[in-house]
Write a structure and sequence with these properties.
Blueprint lengths: L2 E6 L2 E5 L5 E5 L2 E5 L4 E8 L2 E7 L23 E5 L3 E6 L2 E6 L5 E5 L4 E13 L6 E8 L5 E4 L13 E4 L20 E6 L2 E7 L5 E5 L6 E6 L4 E7 L3 H12 L12 E3 L7 H14 L5 E4 L20 H10 L3 E6 L3 E2 L5 H8 L14 E3 L2 E4 L6 H9 L2 H6 L3 E4 L17 E2 L6 E2 H24 L5 E4 L11 E3 L7 H16 L5 E2 L1 E2 L8 H11 L5 E3 L17 H16 L1 H14 L4 E3 H4 L12 E4 L3 E4 L8 E6 L3 E4 L5 E3 L2 E6 L7 E4 L3 E4 L14 E6 L5 E7 L13 E7 L5 E10 L7 E7 L5 E6 L2 E3 L12 E6 L4 E6 L1
Length: about 800
């Protein structure tokens, strides 16, 4: 019999009793109590999957989150029997399962506790709605910190918080508003220098309590489905991040232009206004690659149509914008207008593609077009149909799609009632199970359609709602934020959190979607957005008539905004390389300081500082009128970007914050590749690749990745990976280079810009050939500049 304990409003809680038998098959182990089954599957040496069947029967093993390419590849594992426990071991982990109650303790190979059940797995019958509420509670370790869970607008360290995942249209959300748009049931724990992660793959409404109810317990539960979670061991947090993306998948490389600057507004129309915006960017010499069209481009807000009054010739418009270097992204929502003369509505009704209520009636609700019905994206046939609808947009010249309102959001109702039925790839479930993946599957179908019809070019997709694993096909943004200094801080927190939750390709609505920023706030937001993977200004300016373009705040602000957008374009090779690392290794593009210096307790609650890639440390200006800011630097040496002042890490330093600057540091020893400034990513061929090299006495690795930037040749080996290694001392500078080269670039040489050389240069050798430095090589800012052939392998500078 199962153990029963206290009751609650949902009924009596049940716990497993003693193990009666067990078996091993391949890389998984099953433990049987009187009714409960625990399955422990060794996915890899550091990844263990736990599944519980409360009543002795497992549900269908199916996931919308996990990657199709996930390989189960444990190198060495086995099991030992002890008097009170079973021990499953790998080369790095030990998993102990208590014989009397299935409670789990996970240690490293030396016996140091990583994660430990408190009450462990338990459940309640959900008498009101059916099924079970499944729980798991863990002990909180000494000084443990928690991170992750996607876009939660709260402190980076989640200790003491309770949060839930139930995709919600949270218009004008504030700090600590919960839930929001995305549903990422994955978190990290960090204690005693040990990092781990738990991915709770359950699409029902999930709740996570990080010591709020009881300080010594961390709990997670779902109002339906299975207790099914992956335990991921680091011990480094970045290793946990990589393993999580191994489970849920890494993205394809985006088109290079998507890493440029994006301009959006609700709404740019008619076509004359769009042309004016494009002309302003080019005339003012402010770089931009992307212009968005919001819902007003449609005919009565009907998806996949054009308003013939506002946009009589969309093909001609997009062709002209393309000639100026702009790509066009259009919005597509899930609501399909109820209109018997609307072909998409007719097709959906005829083929039974729309969601229905429990009694068989169509799910109807009001959104922008008025009364709408909604495709059931959990049906693979519907996803295929939806994908086919993008042919017309692709043929018109549209290069990207923006999926909005897909939590799903419904006016007045909030979202779908729970009795709405879904196919769920053949399972037939209620909206309780499908809600958190509705927008996820809409965006997946959208991405598939755009990819199909844009070949050989790469598509771009941005979605508001999704589930774990959406990084495989989409970018995201932080939703309907507000023009305020608090929201500037939240934008930084949310993008860091999204990055470590698998969704690196993220940004916020620069300047705030709701309200009107002043010039200072907008400028400071542009500065932060320069270092977010997605850089997009967006505003609801149809409500106020206020314009929120880079030139909207007067020439003094415009000059600074243009400076930072231009810097963004200079850094494109660095950003693209960082994206390649993310796509290849699963490492987040943005890294909170706790993720790069987890053994330093001072970093565990840092929220303002983060790293973009391996070299750049950023701390945004977070208050109006701020003249200086204290910034914490991890161990090592750091160059201040604006003047090359060198700071020792492991301490807090204070730097001035004039409006034209923000706190920005470069890690000593790194190589930061840069382009010349361009007005869009393909304005001119890059004839000179700049390598900014920052002197350091610790051996340091840096990388430059290159490919065509907008087709799939890279999947066939058409790319370059160039690895730099700096091995310098107080007497000598040395930069070594090794590379894989299978893509022809336009430039034939590098301009080396050497920062911080601590001695007077004597002999300079490039692959053994002497180079004589003249006064022209010494720049006024203290750097040394010289040319090296693209194929160089070793540069050495000896002290004079």
């Amino acid at each position: 019999m199962q153990v029963e304990t206290s009751s609650s409003k949902y009924g009596i809680k049940h716990y497993p009793d003693a193990i009666r038998e067990w078996k091993k098959e391949g890389n998984y182990f099953c433990f049987y109590t009187s009714e409960t089954i625990l399955e422990v599957r060794v996915i890899a040496d550091k990844i263990i999957r736990f599944r519980y069947a409360a009543d002795g029967t497992f549900q269908r093993d199916f996931s919308y989150a996990t990657s199709d390419t996930l390989e189960e590849s444990p190198i060495s594992f086995g099991i030992k029997e002890w008097e009170e426990t079973f021990e499953i071991y790998t080369d790095v982990l030990k998993v102990f399962i208590a014989r009397d109650n299935l409670r789990i303790t996970i240690t490293d190979k030396d016996g140091k506790v990583i994660n430990q059940d408190e009450m462990g797995f338990h459940w309640q019958h959900y008498l009101q709605k059916g099924g079970k509420i499944v729980y798991c509670s863990k002990l909180v370790q000494e000084d443990e910190c928690f991170y992750g869970l996607g876009d939660k607008p709260t402190d980076l360290n989640l200790r003491g918080k309770r949060l839930e995942n139930y995709g919600t249209d949270a218009y004008g959300y504030q700090k600590d508003t919960d839930p929001l748009y995305r549903n990422i049931p994955f978190y990290y724990g960090l204690h005693n220098g040990i990092g781990y992660g738990i991915f709770f793959d359950n699409t029902f409404r999930t709740i996570f309590d990080f010591g709020k109810e009881r300080e010594d317990a961390c709990s997670f539960w779902a109002r339906g489905g299975e207790m099914n979670y992956y335990f991921i061991y680091g011990p480094e947090l970045l290793d946990v991040a990589s393993s999580y993306t191994r489970i849920t998948g890494t993205p394809e490389l985006p088109p290079l232009w998507t890493l440029g600057y994006h301009q959006c507004r609700w709404s740019y129309y008619p076509d004359k206004r769009v042309r004016e915006i494009a002309a302003e960017f080019r005339n003012r010499r402010i770089p931009c690659d992307v212009i968005y069209l919001d819902i007003d481009y449609m005919d009565g807000f009907r998806c996949f149509t054009w308003n013939k009054e506002y946009f009589p010739d969309p093909v001609g418009l997009i062709k002209d914008l393309t000639a100026q270097g702009f790509k066009v992204v259009v919005i597509i929502d899930p609501g399909i207008k109820v209109d018997p003369d609307y072909s998409i509505y007719q097709e959906g009704v005829k083929n039974n593609y729309f969601c229905k209520r429990a009694d068989g009636a169509l799910m109807e609700g009001d959104v922008w077009p008025g009364k709408c019905v909604f495709p059931d994206f959990t049906n693979p046939e519907v996803r295929e149909w939806w994908s086919s609808l993008f042919k017309g947009l692709a043929e018109t010249g549209v290069r990207g799609v923006w999926n909005d309102m897909n939590e799903p959001a419904v006016f007045e109702m909030g979202t779908f009632p729970e009795d709405v039925r879904h196919d769920y790839d053949g399972e037939e479930v209620s909206h309780r199970k499908a809600h958190n993946v509705y927008g996820h599957l809409m965006s997946k179908a959208t991405a598939a359609g755009m990819k199909k019809y844009l070949l050989p070019n790469r598509p771009f997709l941005i979605t508001r709602s999704c589930y774990a694993g959406a990084q495989r096909w989409s970018s995201v943004w932080t939703g309907d934020n507000v023009s305020s200094w608090e929201h500037l801080w939240l934008a930084s927190i949310q993008c860091q959190r999204l990055a470590v939750s698998g969704l690196s390709f993220a940004g916020s609505d620069i300047g705030g979607f709701i309200g009107e920023p002043d010039g200072e706030l907008y400028t400071r937001w542009i500065q932060l957005g320069t270092f977010h993977p997605l850089m997009r200004t967006h505003s609801a300016s149809n409500e106020t008539g206020f314009n929120q373009e880079p030139w909207s705040f007067g020439p003094d602000y415009e000059k600074i905004v243009a400076k930072f957008i231009s810097l963004r374009y200079e850094l494109l090779p660095y950003l693209y390389t960082t994206f390649w690392q993310y796509a290849t290794y699963g490492t987040p593009m943005l890294r909170p300081l706790a993720f790069v210096a987890q053994h330093d307790p001072a970093t565990h609650n840092c929220t303002h500082e983060f790293m973009m890639g391996d070299a750049l440390l950023i701390s945004h200006v977070s208050e109006e009128g701020m003249k200086e800011k204290a910034v914490y630097l991890p161990q090592g040496k750091w160059f201040y970007f604006w003047n090359d002042t060198v700071y020792n890490g492991g301490q807090q330093v204070t730097v001035p914050t004039p409006l034209e600057e923000m706190p920005l540091f470069v890690k000593a020893g790194t190589v930061v590749p840069r382009y010349p400034v361009m007005q869009h990513t393909y304005e001119t061929p890059v004839t000179e690749m700049l390598l900014h090299v920052y002197y350091g006495e610790e051996t340091t690795q840096s990388t430059l990745y290159e490919d065509a930037g907008d087709h799939y040749g890279y999947k066939n080996g058409q790319y370059n990976v160039i690895n730099f290694k700096q091995v310098s001392s107080a007497e000598q500078f040395m930069l070594k280079k090794k590379y894989y080269v299978n893509y022809e670039v336009a430039y034939t040489h590098h301009r080396i810009i050497l920062h911080g050389l601590p001695f007077k240069a004597g002999t300079v050798l490039i692959d053994g050939t002497p180079l004589t430095l003249t006064n022209n090589n010494y720049l006024p800012d203290g750097t040394i500049s010289f040319i090296a052939d693209r194929g160089f392998e070793n540069i050495t500078i000896h002290k004079a």
